[in-house]
Amino acid sequence: MSNSTAQVLMKKGKRGAAAYIHADCANGSPQHLGPLLDVLLNPSKAIDEWETIDWCRWLLAGGRTPDEFAAVVRSYDKHDKCGLVWIPRVVAYRCRTCGISPCMSICRECFYRGDHSTHDFNMFLSQAGGACDCGDNSVMKEDGFCSNHGNKCPRPGTAPAELMCVAEAMMPRLILRLLQHFRENGCGTPNSDGYRIAVQECEGYVQMLMEFNNMGDLMRSAMTKALINPQMYRNLVEPPFPDTEYGHYMGESNKMYEKAIESFPAPEPPDEYRHLPALAPRLQHNTLLDEFIFWTFKYEFPQNVVCFLLNMLPDQDYKEHLTRTFVMHYARIPLVLENSADPDTLSNRVVHMSVQLFSNEALALRCVQQLHLLHVMVLSLRLMMGKILVQNTLHDPAKNCHYVIDCTKRVMKEHCYWPLVSDFNNVLSHKSVALLFLQDDALVDMWFEFLSMLQGMNVNVRETGGHIEFEPSSYYAAFSCELEAAAYPMWSVLAHLCEPAHAPLAARLVAAAIRFLRAWLHAVRAPEKPRRACCTFNTFAAGPILAYFKLSETMHASFHFPLHRYLAAFLCAGVRALGVSAASLLPARPLLAQLAAHPLRVQSLFYEILAGVWVRNGLQIKGQAMTYIQANFCNSMVDMDIYWLQICAAHLPPDQFLDMCIDTFGVREWLSMTPMSTVQSAEQDAMVEGLLTFLAILVSSRTNLGNDELTQSRLEVSTLLAAGDKTHSQLLELMPERSGNAHTRNFETVLKEVSVYRAPPRGSESLEQGLFVPREAVWRSYYEPLHVLRRAVHRRDFHASMDRYAAYVREKQKSENGGPLANINTNALWPPLRPAKAPPEAAGDPRALCDSGVLHGALLAVLHRGVRRRDGGGGAAPPDHVLALAVFLLHTAAQRAAEAHAADRADAREVCVAGGEGGARGGRVSGAPLLRALCGGGILHSARTLVASVAPLHAAERAHRPPARPQQQHSDSDTEWEPSESEQTRLPPPTKSVSLPATSTALAVPQSLEMVRGNSVSDDQSDTGGDTPEMRALESGSSDMQALVVQTLQALPHLDTDTDAEGDVDNQMTLAIPDHLDPDTPPVAIDYVVRRHERYVWRHVCLRSGSSSVVAVVVIVRSPADIVTEMEVQEWAVRAGRATPPALPAPPDLAPAPAARADDTQMELHTQSDEQIPVNESIISLLLKLHSQLSGRLDSFSLEEPAPELDEPIGDGPLFIGALLRQLAALDARCAASVRALRRALWPHQRERQAEQRARERREKEERSRRARERQQQVMREFARRQQQFLSAIQSMEGDADAMDWEEEPLERDYDCVICNTTAPTTAADPIGLVVLLQSTSVLGHRRRAGSGVPRLPLAEAERARLAAQQDATAAAHHYRLHDDLAQNFDQESWVLSVSVGWEGGVAAQSCGHHLHLRCLRAYLRSLAAPQRPHNLHVERGEFLCPVCRQLANSALPLAPRPPPARPPPPAHHYDAAAAVLDMLQREQPTPTPSRLSEAMGKAMEDMTGTAGSKLKQRYGSSPAAIFTFVASLARTNLECELVQRGGRLLSCPPPRYKPRDDCIVPLLAVAGAHGRALAAAGAQLGVAATWRALVPGAAAAAAAGGTEGGSAALAAAGGRARPVPLLLRDPAALLMHFLLLAPAHPPHLDIQYFTCIVKALYALTYYQIVNQLCANGVFSAVLEAGASGDAAADDDAGGLLDAAKLLMTSLAGSHLLDDDGLSDSSERITDIAKIEAQVQELALGYLRIAALVRRHVYGAELPEVEAPQLEFSALLRYLELAPGGSDALTAASALPPGAAPAARAWARQLAASVNGGQLATRRVVRSLHASWAGPWLLALPRDYDRVFTHYHERVCLQCGAVPKEASVCLLCGTLVCLKQPCCRHHQVAEAVQHAVECGGGTGIFLVVTSTYIIVIRGRRACLWGSLYLDDYDEEDRDLKRGKPLYLSQDRAELLQAQWLAHRFDHTKRTWVWHRDSL
Hints:
By secondary structure, the protein is α+β, with helices and mostly antiparallel strands. It contains 76 helices and 39 strands. The strands form 15 sheets. A 6-stranded antiparallel β-sheet has the order 33-32-34-35-36-39. It has a 4-stranded mixed β-sheet with strand order 21-13-14-22. Strand 28 (1440-1441) and strand 29 form a beta hairpin. Mean pLDDT is 81; it is low at 533-546, 906-919, 958-1169, 1297-1305, 1597-1617, 1688-1692 and 1719-1723.
């Protein structure tokens, strides 16, 4: 019954059935719809059956037509939201001004309907698809809504209830039918191909649903009800099913569905998260939408289904349910991505959908709270990455139990994780969600577990043998993963931590990071303390040193430590913005040192790569180093590493941190002055530079340690500009990037502040773009060389910045002219390292490193090597850059001392240390390791301490090994040593004691180990500038003998280090002197200098070496007052705990130590070993010597000299060293005394000797000047005498001048061969050729008639029609029509000889002006034909590069020797000259003599013939006449091209952009003349003599008898039937070329008199041709009528023109050629004879210009200076000697030669006689023979590129009917071509190449619409020329990547036009490629 009901309804027709169903549904009981849908939607039928789809449309319309129904439904649309969905490669817009979410985008229509003109917007080509957000106030501001959406649109009325009744009833079945199709095809073997076929089958059905959806809100509401109703879903798909065919099908369909659910992969979350609904192992579907989303996931997000789902988003209920359903399926996304064959496309489609759902903050927050979205995302990411883990190989791989991501897997290489990370970032961009994330400890722990998978990934293993065979490319996947998956979420969260209330959240993240880092360190088995290792860096280490890495471990290194960077980032946020103290969040010092080790290793790895240590690992390892500091990564990687190390440096003991740095960088041998091999020394030279650079950056960088956002932006922009001028986009791209646009927030403001915009220069050949140039303030205030080094991906950027800085200094020197900069050597400038600013107190001060004695010793080593190697001490001296860094670090230490002095001035007692000799010597150290020699004192003490000698590293290491047990950690954070019990038992018993004489401060110790301390000053003295009281150590105030009691070391272990004993320990000095050391005893701990309160605490503890004892000194000082009190004690004792030991007598066999000076402070350490490295230098002495060396003079520094007054750090080495010495002297009087004493010791009396030397040099200079003046006067007297003699000789010869007969003999010109470098004239046996480039051209064919308008690129159909009409008015079309008309009436040979060819496909010759022997050229070409031929040359076609200028060439025009000079003929009458010309033309041509010159001319002609277009041969044939016409047209074409290049006129101004070269014309005429004469000699009947006789009938009496008939007879004999072209129809310029080639014996060398005669005769022909043309066009009719009635003006002008017109009209009266057939409009009839005269002159100028150019090239006469166009005609007449000179304007008739009128009458009769049967064609020729041409122009382009893009982006190709992927428009004719597409190929030649041949003679200029670029095709090559459209900063936007508005650059358009006209593409572009006919 159901079927019968359906059949009855279907017989009613679609409309009738639809009306019936609508009425049924409107009644509320649709009984008949179900049976009808059972038939229509029968699953056995194909889903995309067109009849079914059409029935559905009609049924839904309810009795209306589908279009009418759609219109009615749309009329009720609320237009709240646009919701337009687009697919990839669709143009959309993004407005950052209006956007709330960074993912906001709007469609083109909404963008243009809104007001965004002043906003920050960009156009982009969508990569993943998208949807329009217009109207959605959760994504964009309401101000940005267009007029059709949001609250701006009118509200519709209420829709009638029955309107949508059918739709609501049908929609569930329609959607179910699509699900049934998915079920049928989804249970087989899952594969992408099968899914794609199934989706294609339902394309039409899905399109129908999208059409319904596009009807608006009413239809979306109906579809939403069907999709989200659970009861409806149960009724449709759940059993029981009826016992019918459809019920059986649904049962099978349900089984298919269950099978698909079971087979769909499910995630395997941890047990604690299995309860989350989104992570359930089995999916539960309750609505049609749930199942729809399931199939969307199953079928890998098909594009049409995704678009359908997104099109429904404007419905808010649907959006809520879709988002929830999407989240419930979200955990399956990783599984789908892993199994996909095309994960890239799938990723785009996933993001296409998810970004629309998660951009709404309220919706995202509900998903997070209710569905645990963040947990699902993080777990999905963890589970995805957990499948590709491998064992980490850092440290010891055998013990490492940490697992990291394998970067070689497909998931990493193809970025399969990108959709998950993108969604995670999108969600975290909402503040409420980010704060929830931070508050959930479990979620944070889960995220850090994921980050642990990235910690230490992509480990690089250093190659030490051969070069790596295969360079892995996985490193960029690792960097991308850390940036996208770790850094971007980090920045998203940090962007919301901006209030002090968020401080606990930051602290929780820091604590979590430390906790996970501790676990990670344990997992990788990282050492908990420094251990003995053979070397951290160098294979040639001399022994064990302190290190966190073994030698084998240093061969494994990674750049990826995201846990460290998270710790640094959140710590930085807490300190900078939230008011947290760094010390309150940091771990204990041992763990802090551990946490510093790996970031420190990353820094050493970076500098190792730069030093070439990892060179065997290939280019990829350098790529990693460059990526590490690249703009996209530096903020997240290197900046965070530096910040963390700054924190560690500020909170670890400086000596400890410096030891870690030195060992990690592997330069301890270098800094200890240990002898090394050459290879090792060179390696460590580079690493020392890296270490000093790193330390300087560490103490000075304030990127995250004090700089606010504006200051940092200013620094970044200044750094970029310092390296070079840059475009706006380059600056924006190179700005260090963070997630979002925070890094560019202040960009525009800062850019205006620090730079000046420089527009590209006009008229330049190079396509320059607008650049930003740094202001002077950049160099004066913001230039930071260390920051440039930190950001410079290429080190050349740093060197470029220094060069630019030097240029600034030189300009400043010039401007000041004698100021303080006058004495600075700008060729040896040091980097202007600015003083390091104090960081915020809460963060700590990394400048504390500069107080380290280890650093002072290291810098002493650097300075020592610099001084010694400059003195020739062996090896390369450290470069100035390294010395500058060392001086900078010393200056920072001095700055710290000055700050401490300023802070302590109020507490300290103002007692100055006496200067003079007593304090000059300073301390003295001998035998200690260099890096320990200066420990314990400040910079002021270290600077003046003399290091006499140092122990080499292999001996010193035994005294400085770390303890065998870990150090104790105490509550006060001081690191002390407490020996174990076993160590106490090994200490030697007390056996010796010493006593001191009263007059000495020396301490008597065993000879094997002696310590002497003299006049001692508090260590704080060095930091307070000499203002604290002077102390005497080890000395009492009495003159009596005092005993120094020395306790044995047995009591030393009982030192109480408890906290409660700190007060006692802090106020005592302890000396421990053991009598011997056991070489096998392990070393005792070395405590590092620690800053405590206001003072330093420094300790030395007992060390053992050999059999001797080493002094252990523990000095704890709290205040100067305590020190003074302690010094008053008469007897000192070593205290163990609180017990005072008894005094011991001195041994009797020990002699007292020699007395030391009372004013010295010395410490000497002597061991039994004799291996000592002599130094005998202090920092001050080295600075003085270095100052002298860099200055180039002895004793160059003096404190008495005034310091230069500079307001900025500009200077060379001496200036900065002098500033440091002055600073030290100002802080400590003893340093000043030391400087003076050392000067006197090094250079005694040097200043006096220098003064004497200067006085002597001044006297010698004065003497030399006096002698020079005397010699100059003597020379001038001699010159005057000879000049007088010359004048006298000239005067005596004047009398005989008239009698002398001067005969000028022209010298033969010599040419320079650029190959063999010889100079010789050209000869027939050894010809010389001119290097030329021959190319086909159609430039002349694109000239248009004057007045036809400028051709424009069509942007509408009307404009396209107008362009087509203009194309019909081109010169090529005109000449083709003219030639066709001539061919109809006249003989082939005759009409071919009457015209010129080559307007399209002609040959243009260009030369660079260089010459070469043709034999040399042949040898050169043979060398190019070798197997190693240049890839960019077609050698087989004769291409080569000029050996001098490297311009492309493909031929050489041979230069014929000049003929012997002939006596010029006497001036003759016109007829006499004409008779002489006739004789020349009638002379029989001799057969050419074979020679190398003739062979070369033949080869040149072959080259030109091969270059010409194939059109010429096809159209004109290969007869002798056609060949001669082609030969003659070669010269005509090049002359016309020169004329076009000059602008079409021979005016003086404006000059052309490319000056025409005049090298080629004469050689070209010579080659053409030789071939023309060869044709004549071969018997070719060219009829040139007959033409001349007809042209000048009165040339001679003999010629007059024959007249024109002779010429006609000759033509008849040559052509078979005499149908010659009359003279009045022949081209005068072509005849000029004929006569010039055949008349002279040596073309083109013809006497100027005969040339003028030819020009005059042809001018007469031109004049009468023009008058005849005007008569035929009816121009003279009105004037003649006025003359007949007596109204014409009776002047000479009118008489000349009217007489000529009457003469022609009379002679042609019977031919009807001049009859008026109404072609001329009566409203335009000309009655003014002056206007007719102007027309005649304008038309005659074409011939005159060609004749003038011939005269200029052949005879060398310069063209006249013509300032205005109206003066050109008269000037050319005078130049060609057609009219007498004078200033009056000339008429056209005034230049006619004698006998012109009779000749014209004869020409007219000849024309009349030739009109037999071809009157119409002849009349067309007569009326259009001469034309005034405007220059050829490329199509004019619109100013706004958007107009071009809008019109052509979606335009269909006329050949293939498809939209081209790269639509390209020809700028010559406006044709749209498919670039690089196979669809429009013809004979295997792509469309663009074929079009270039047809339209441009081989030259094609195409605008690629999708990229804005111009592609130029030249022959077989093509190149990217550049873009004509630039943005507001005159910058290109290739491929529209930035999407900014683009505007036409008029200068570039003119340049492109000029290069096309001048045929200069081959010479101006260097980026040609072979297109291989594929464009």
